[in-house]
Amino acid sequence: MEQVRRVGAYGVLRDADGRILLVRGSERADFPRVWSLPGGGLEHAEHPAQAVLREVAEETGLAVEVTGLRAVVADVVPYPDLGVALHTDRVLFDVTAVGGTLHDERGGTTDLARWLAPDEAAGLPLLPFTAEALGLPVVPLPSGALRRREPFAPPDAARRQRFGAYGLVTDPAGRVLLALIADGYPGAGRWHLPGGGTDHGEQPVTALLRELVEESGQLGRVTELIGVDNFHNPAALGPEGYPIDWHGIRVVYRVLVDLPTEPAVTELAGGSTAEAAWFAPAELRELPLTEIAAGALAAAG
């Protein structure tokens, strides 16, 4: 099957009575009459936090603001008739309403927007990620629920969207693990958070722990989801040798390595990491850091 990828942003919105806002797929949706959290796919270069504001407004009429990052998950749906396996990375935000009036989307991929009590939602067909986010049982959808017949748009050779997972990695002594970007890659010569792109079918946490081993030989455990970063370079020049309109969505976790060892880069790192090293907090001030590394370290104090 052809492997296709997509990134989406979704909002978890509750009212004063504890009801959750859900939307129903229209006849234009891949899953008609199936309910979901409001949200949808990112446009090129769009930050997930901006995408969720746009999507919630389009599907429900409500203006919302982001109050927190709830979860990041991934799932794969096979489309046998199209010969495609669609991997979707889903960024879930807690949001609160700040304006607008609830109404149904007209002519879009949803046709109803409703406030529903948890027991009401439990009785509806829900997309699996929505049921999981609401703490409800994940029930298989009815046979024939997937009705998409239109082929997926071919990828744009001049554009690239990449979803990655990165870690603010520390050890019990408070040292921070960083990876040096190799020559020939964007950001060469700067120290970066360990991590990298997720593979098709791979959960972000699994990808991060795999990358940590590949780039440094360390075994870590993820303790917290701390942020999502958006990176857009309209003319990124990497090992391909020609400029690419590059859009990176990067989720950041806090990771603890309980038994640190001397870092060692393996061949599986793919050449983008020149070396990895542990640094005491005082040493970090003298290092050339990537923007995402500097931001994560500043946020962590």
Would you give an account of this structure?
- The chain is of the alpha+beta class and 301 residues long.
- 16% of the residues lie in helices and 42% in strands.
- The strands form 3 sheets. Strands 8, 9, 10, 11, 12, 13 and 14 form a 7-stranded mixed β-sheet that branches.
- A hairpin with a 4-residue loop joins strand 5 (62-79) and strand 6 (84-100).
- The model has no long low-confidence stretch (mean pLDDT 95).
The proportion of residues in beta strands is 35-45%
The helix fraction, in percent, is: 10-25%
Tell me the series of helices and strands, N- to C-terminal: EEEEHEEEHHEEEEHEEEH
The main sheet comes to: 7 strands, mixed
| Spatial separation of the terminal alpha carbons | 46 Å
- Class of secondary structure makeup: alpha+beta
- The Cα radius of gyration reads 21 Å
Q: Mean of residue pLDDT?
A: 95
Can you tell me the residue ranges where pLDDT is under 50 for at least 5 consecutive residues? none
- How many helical elements? 5
Shape: globular
Number of strands: 14
Assembly state (oligomeric): single chain
Please give a quick description of this structure.
This protein is α+β, with helices and mostly antiparallel strands and 301 residues long. It is built from five helices and 14 strands.
